[in-house]
Amino acid sequence: MEMSEIQRIKAAVPGLVWSNTKAPLEVYVRAALLRPRFLEILKIVSVIGLGRVKYEWTVLEREQSPEAQRASSYTKRILKNIEVGSNL
Fold it and tell me: For 21-52, b where at least 16 C-beta lie within 10 A, e where not — what string?
């Protein structure tokens, strides 16, 4: 039986949303984007694709929360580096 996207993300990045094991996929993606670590975001991109991760980042940017503003420069750089690397 094939694992779902959320199961694959939970396996790749354990503890990302440890307090809510039934959280939807976007909660996992957004949590990673707000606490930007290259390898975590790269693992998520490998599961759901760069387009979907960038979409979730756009949603967070529009909200203009303090957390998104704090993470902005790091997250944008990580997403840009992943995009550049995927085009090689």
Answer: eebebeebbbbbbbebeeebbbbbbebbebeb
Within a 13 Å sphere around the CA of 23, how many CA atoms are in the beta-carbon half? 16
In a domain, 12, yes or no: no
Do the beta carbons of residue 38 and residue 7 sit within 8 Å? no
Whether residue 73 is contained in a domain is answered as: yes
Cβ-proximal residues to 32 (8 Å cutoff; 6+ apart), any chain: 13, 16, 40, 41, 44
What is the domain range of residue 50?
A: 25-86
How many domains, in total, are found in the chain?
Answer: 1
pTM of the model: 0.88
* Whole-number pLDDT of residue 4: 86
